[in-house]
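ingest -> validate -> predict -> emit
validate: passed (alphabet ok, no gaps, 158 aa)
predict: started
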Amino acid sequence: MTLGGTLVLGMGNPILSDDGVGLLVAGRLRESPLPDHVEVMQSEVGGLRLLELVRGFTRVIIIDALRSPAESGRHPGEVYRYEAKDFKGGHRYGSAHSIGLDTCLEIGHKLGYDMPAEVTVFAIEAEDVETFGEELSPPVAAAAERVFALVREEVGAA
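emit:
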């Protein structure tokens, strides 16, 4: 682990169709040339377990699927970029990973952990997170390509 560096964390479930998009993008990033200060991890866990993964890094970039309610007007394959401040004041990160990101960061700070000063989330609107399968839907697969490029740009590799 590069303490003080940047962690790129792909999250999801690899056998629930679009929910695996974060893992897929992280896997591709791991195979591409990145600056020395960047570490890439994949995780199928969330909640308080996320705390142990992100502590010690100065910056964390999370890639994950998002499934919004139908009435939200969002469409599969849309990409949303959030910062940690976006999760304060009641805004909930729409993930199925137990406690919210804001709560995880708050608990880490209260425990005195060295928590990241900067957290960015790339959330990809999913089409299907309930069907068993390892294939992404076409709009989410296209979004994965865009997020791969966006993250490389964020870490100074593009």
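Helices lie at 21-31, 48-54, 101-110, 138-154.
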